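We modelled the chain as a single entity of 682 amino acids. Its sequence is:
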Amino acid sequence: MRSQGHLPEVAVLTITHVTEEGELTAEPVKWDAKKKPPHIVVTESGRSRAAVKGDRVLAKLRKVKPQLYQALVIRVLPGEQPQPVLGVFVATAEGGIIEPVSRKNKESFMVARGDMAGALHGELVSGVTLPGMPSLGMSYAKIQERLGRLDTPRAASLIASHMHNLPALFSPEALAEAEEALLPVMEAGRVDLRRIPLVTIDGEDARDFDDAVFAERDGDGWHLLVAIADVAYYVKEGSALDTAAFERGNSAYFPDRVIPMLPERLSNGLCSLMPGEDRYCLAVHLWIDGQGNVKRYEFIRGLMRSQARLTYEQVETAAQPDDGLRMTDDRKQWITNLFGAYAALATERDKRGALDLNLPEYKIQFDAAGNVMAIAPKERLEAHRLIEAYMIAANVAAADFLLKKHIPAIYRVHEQPADEKLEELRNLLKIAGYSLHVGAGIKAAHFNRVLKASASEPNAFMIHTAVLRSQMQAYYAHENLGHFGLALTKYCHFTSPIRRYADLVVHRGLIGALNPVKREAIAQDPALSASPRRRIDNRLPDIALHISDTERRAMMAERDASDRYKVSFMSRHVGEVFPGTIVSLNEYGLFVGLNANGVTGFVPVRNLGGDFFTYDKRHACFKGQRSKQVYALGQPIMIRVQAANAITGSLIFEPERAPVPPQPALRPKHPKYRHKHKQYRK
């Protein structure tokens, strides 16, 4: 039957376009009318999962104009290719249903008896969608893997890793290569660094030690040595280990476990700079003056032996006059020298004007059974800043060396904030009583002036958060484009090859440049241009894009797991009241961070009270039309935990309000109603 040029209330649509603002447009799958199909705008609300161009969706339609419809997505229909499914299995008489564990993907799937794979009620399962027509509004899926019960401790990181498709298992070939790796020995071309008192400084729970440091006086300045694990010795280009490391791109660090980039035989063993053990390293000597400026540097390939495995807390305490630690005089002197050189590096950092954000971080603590016991703030120590300064100096030297030698490499890039982000930040700062540099040439130092001015004010957290959100996300590129946040014109990642593929690529470039025989051979023989090294160089743009994507993937998974653990902890406090701060707003409500533990929950507009609240984006607040109540960014607020869903990681708050005293009934003003009220009849 030919359509008469209008659409039904419910129809199957194809997403045809996605604008830069994220607006979706669609066309009906079936359209028999002779005239052009109407324009269909897909609304955000009601979308079961984020639809993309080419998706088919089942949508409810509302006619706005003769040739304009608004579509509310009921669900995204499975395509020809099977789509991954992750959720909780709910047993039914006919088989079961997979309920989603994601807040964004709210689509459930039916499972036939023959596709259950033995799954039990309440288990976390993964699977794929199956082709065919939906039944009872749901598509079918087949279970492929049982992941354990959802109510078991430490399930959050398991959910997050599967939701974001993090590779968890290594191939047999990669594991075999790791097992075949041999203990390091002194070999020709390496420098023996085993007599130098290099030490590692890491967190108390760290297991892979990438870097070791040493410092000593050099006239009016300092001589530094930063030694980094020589991962490139064990992970050869094109090997199974290299393929596995590239696929992962980086290690993923969850509150309760790690998904490493390399097998544990290497990441926690032969590549880890453990105390008292000989290890291959790629090191850089740095000579700096009293103001922290690098006078010269030298890269070497060496064999080292860490003299001590120190924690940040130990180093911080040992730096105090009365440390209370039974530490040898030698170790005390090592730490004293490290802090002396750090003071010079800090002087250069401050003069350079690196962005100096100070936002609290929190650590999730578990009991012996794996349940969340507490969420406590991490203490920011000078020992943390010390290691950061040493690593930044080594990274800058690596970038400078590669650029001067014209060695293709991967650089760490951080661009200056976008104009629209800066404008939003300026409006916010203006409301708070601060101003930000206007015009071209904005620098990180301009942000620091605002951060310093607000440091002792009640709105300091809000200001620091707003500045952070105005920044661009750093990424990897095959071109050196500088690092805005660090106020550096050249920068790369060199110091963590155990956990970042970018650093491994940089190491290979440095090692190639340090081998003059190989360099000369390549220069004299054009046939070597097709060597693996050159092929890798040609692939650098693709490698940079890939590892930027894997970094974002790991970051989202890590954040997702942390959020779920936090919600699990807060589920024991439903109904309780906590002080918090409004850290963000959108048209749907407020995000409030709790002052005690940094947990962030959402306050929907409907929870703000009986008034009608409107969102004022320019002034970053909600305003009540009758009560004139204002909820503004950075405002302190007492909230009550209304709901905490550990399955989806959803945490809902509501403002805590004082009891409202009963109000006298309003007296009618119109004379004809007066006879109905006793107070008037008197």
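As a brief sanity check on the tokenised model: The longest helix spans residues 540-570. DSSP finds 15 helices and 31 strands in the chain.
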